[in-house]
Structure formats: C-alpha cells, structure tokens
Amino acid sequence: MMNSKQFHVAVVGATGAVGREMLRMLEVRRFPIASLKVLASERSAGQMLSFNGQSIPVERLSAESARGVQIALFSAGATVSKEYAPIFVKEGAVVVDNSSAWRMDPAIPLVVPEVNSKVLSKKSRLIANPNCSTIQMVVALQPLHKKAGLKRIIVSTYQSTSGAGQSAMEELRQQTQAVLNKTVLPVPKKLPAIIAFNCVPQIDVFLENGYTKEEMKMTYETRKIMNLPKLPLSATAVRVPVFRSHSEAVWAEFSKPITAKQATALLAKAPGVVVVDDPANKKYPLAIDAEGKIETFVGRIREDISSKKGLTMWIVSDNLLKGAAWNAVQIAEVMIAKGYI
User: Fold this and answer.
1) Could you tell me which CATH number the domain at 7-130+324-337 has?
2) Are 236 and 215 in contact (CB under 8 A)?
3) 3-state secondary structure 35-60
4) 3-state secondary structure of 322
5) pLDDT tens profile 292-324
6) Which DSSP string do the residues of 200-263 spell out, in sequence order?
7) Alpha-carbon distance 193 to 125, whole Å?
8) Which end of the chain has the least Cβ crowding within 10 Å, N or C?
9) What's the pLDDT at 42?
10) Handedness of CA 225, 226, 228, 233 (dihedral sign)
11) What is the pLDDT of residues 265-302, one digit of tens each?
12) What is the pLDDT of residue 21?
C-alpha cells in the first residue's frame, strides 16, 4: 500500500500468532507508518520483534499506550479489548478489533471489505473483525448471493490448530511426535481432546441448543455481515490436525437457479477469491497451499443433487491472514483510502 500520509500505529497482542501476522502484513503491504508501537501483556514486555529489518521492543499495554495512536490493531482477546479498545478510541484512534468482544454490538460495524465495506464511515472509530471461519465463507458466497439470493447455508468446517493459538499448535506438534515415537501422549491442555491423527468436533464451549459457540458465531456473524438477519444457517465446526488454514464444505441454497458454471465464472472475477477447480487433474484448494496467502480459495464447485437451486463447494483460506491479520489490515487500508482516517 502506498500513501503519502503516514500514521502512528499500534499492534495490541503483538506477540501472539495473529499479532505477529499483523506486523508481517503491515510490512508486506508497505503500510504508511510514521511510528509503530508493539504492545502485549506484562509477561511479554521486553521481547524484541522484527519489523522492516529493525528490532522493536514489546511494551506493556496500559492506558498510556493509547496516547498519540491513530490506528490500533487489536488481537489480545475479548477481555483486553473490552477494557482497552474504548480507551484507544477516546484518545483518537481507529481501532480494528480481532476479538469477539464487539462483533454482535449493533452499533459496531462487523466488516469483511470484499462484502460490506460500505458500512464504514468517518464515524467508524471501533470496527470488529469477524471470526476466521465466517470471513472466508462470506467472501466466497457474496458474489453468488448478488446473483441468485442466498436462501440457506449448511457448513462443516475443518479448522486448523492455529485458530486456537500457538499453544494449540504446539500440542499438535508434541502429540504427533509422541505418536510417531510411540511414547506417552501429553495430556491436552488447550484443546478438548487429543488432536494428533484425530478430528475433534468441538470448537469453543457448547451452548444450550447443542451447538458450540463457534458454530453460532458463524450463524450470527454471517447474518450481520451479509445483512440477512433471518438467513437459516447450520454449522458444524471441527478441529483437525493441521497447523494453518481452515477448510470448509459449504452447501448453499439460493432463491434463483444458479449453475456451477455460472458460479465458477462469478467467483473467478470476485475480489479476494481464487478458483482452483480441476478435480480430474487433482486440482482443488488445499490447506497446505493456502498457508501464507491472503486470498480465499474455492473449488469442488458443483450443483447440489439434493436441491434444484443449490450449490456445493470447498473453501480454504489461511485463518491467520484473511481470517484475521490481513482482514484487519485491509479494513485499515479501506478507512485510509476513503479518507476516514
């Protein structure tokens, strides 16, 4: 990103998996930075992080940290966001928050730039970044919705361990080594069950309706982002033994007929989407190929044999990038481009 004006930027939660990727995205995008603060908990204060070839010391997050900041990217969890995001806003910053703290607040825009950047305005001071699994799905479904009108969604997710943080990735690594070395499996601490060579049908806590909080996030957030408050959506979220990138099997039913050929053509032109769909030659989106990339990859596009107006597809994206860090930086870029900051 090239911009003649430069901004005082802060990354809150900079030492976490998403925080580190936020820094990398700011660097890759050549974000117009006049000064940069990298902030984290007291436990992480004093660590050194690399940015544009320089080592920057991690500072302890405090109320004073907000002074002079114009753009703040938060990825430190809902509790921290609830306490500190309003402080940064009060000090004059635009805050893009990656936690669940503000997503369903009717007064706070929940934004995926390819889908609903029009909800942003000069008054937008606190902006919510959606859940990773929601983001990649709506990026792929938005152009199809424009054409045929979404009527219903059923989705099963295959979510990587990085979605639960660095400690979950380490559990996968340690457990895999233990299985291969035929040693005692470490007791799971971050994840609810053994993840090595396994699939765990639980992400976040279970709710009274039998769905997990993650599954209901997808329902409520999709409705808000796409401005479809009554859209029927049923999700099953599964953790799989993958380090990075979430995969999703999506069944979408529409109000009007839409063929797989039409959908493929629309998706091939859609912003942020790359179509990889040649099953005969074993070409389809893979988590390992999406890692490190900012796009959302779509394949296995076919007409649903159980519905005359349905499509089925496979959607893959790096959950730390488009699912979190890149989407947040992208929101900040849109705010700058529109002259809102």
Assistant:
1) 3.40.50.720
2) yes
3) EEEEEECCCCCCCEEEECCEEEECEE
4) helix
5) 999 999 999 999 999 999 999 999 999 999 999
6) B--SS-B-TTS-BHHHHHHHHHHHHHTT-TT--EEEEEEE-S-SS-EEEEEEEEESS---HHHH
7) 39
8) N
9) 87
10) negative
11) 999 999 999 999 999 999 999 999 999 999 999 999 99
12) 96
Per the document, the length of the chain is 341
Residue 8: strand, helix, or coil: strand
CA distances from 227 to 56, 135, 252, 288 (A): 41, 14, 16, 32
Considering the four listed CATH numbers 3.40.30.10, 3.30.360.10, 3.10.180.10, 3.40.50.300, the one that applies to the domain covering 134-319 is 3.30.360.10
Residue range 191-214, pLDDT digits in tens: 999 999 999 999 999 999 999 999
Tell me whether residue 199 is one of the annotated catalytic residues.
no
- Could you say which of 8, 145, 199, 246 is catalytic? 246
Which of the following is catalytic: 8, 132, 145, 199? 132
Distance in angstroms (rounded) separating the CA atoms of residues 327 and 25: 10
CB 284 within 8 A of CB 247: no
Contact 207, 185 (CB under 8 A): no
* Structure confidence at residue 4 (pLDDT): 73
246 is catalytic: yes
How far, in Å, CA of 75 to CA of 71, rounded?
Answer: 13
Among residues 263, 273, 289, 272, the alpha carbon closest in space to that of 330 is found at 272
Looking at residue 109, what DSSP letter applies?
-
Q: What is the DSSP letter of 186?
A: P
What is residue 5's DSSP assignment? S
CATH 3.30.360.10 placement within the chain: 134-319
pLDDT digits (tens, 9 = 90+) for 230-272: 999 999 999 999 999 999 999 999 999 999 999 999 999 999 9
Q: pTM for the complete prediction?
A: 0.95
- Comma-separated ranges of CATH 3.40.50.720 domains in the chain: 7-130+324-337
**pLDDT, position 1:** 61
